[in-house]
Amino acid sequence: MSPDHFPSLGPTFTVLLCANRSTPFLRESIDSVLKQDDGDFEFLIAANACPDELVEELRCLIGLDPRARIIRTEIGQLAFNLNLLASEARGDYLVRMDADDISLPNRISRLRRSLTENPVDVLGSWAYVIDEAGNRTGEYRLPLEHRNIVHRLPYGTVFCHPSVALRKQFLIDMRGYLGGFASEDTDLWLRGARRGAKYMNLPECLLSYRVHPGQSSRSRQSYAETASHWLRELLASPDGFVLKGFSVAFAKCLLSPLLRASRRPKRAGVRR
Length: 272
Description:
Layout: E1 13-19, H1 26-34, E2 42-48, H2 52-62, E3 68-73, H3 78-88, E4 93-98, E5 102-103, H4 107-117, E6 122-130, E7 136-140, H5 146-152, E8 165-167, H6 168-173, H7 184-194, E9 199-210, H8 220-236, H9 240-254, H10 256-262
Parallel strand pairs: 1-2, 1-4, 2-3, 6-9
Antiparallel strand pairs: 4-8, 5-9, 6-7, 6-8
Helix pairs in contact: 7-8, 8-9
């Protein structure tokens, strides 16, 4: 459906999705974006370091929808492709989406309503956890208010990355995502907190986050990468909070084999 049928009220949005291989979940993921109850957005898809067959599959999946555009790249790194899509985006906010997750039908409309009332730099939401078959197995319930989000940064996840809407100017001010294997989001939240960015999570599930064997799991290398981000922050702005963050991240790196063995999605309590 043409975006002309949806007059823009409030901020405009660009949905960003990166895909480098065909999966059984790709059609459902793309359909969940194109079938939003608020259709006023553009949809940019990076076909990165992929075979020609994937590009053809993506073209079939988006059909003739004028909101969707495929950008092919030869570089597989997620951070590079997110920055490239962001540079092409026309929206005020960049809505993240992974190629195996599902956006709930009211995701864009709910984000628009919240950001019209409270235009923070990063707005995330809670998320359902689903398995390969799409069955709900739990929820990610994350801290809601800025103060509690920043307070929890040393201890672990504060945003479900595929659920967030980023203010485009914020990402530009941060000079984009930095390179990395698995922690480009944590790095961005740390740099943003140091620069006074405003964070918020909505206390409702707007995304189904899929957990399946085909995903990459956290390795000692990626834990070490997170520790390096905290070390940078410690050198740039030494204080007790940052020292705590580095200590926790370094400990996770040392204990990563045990953490991977015990890693499970949990239903956490509400944190405001």
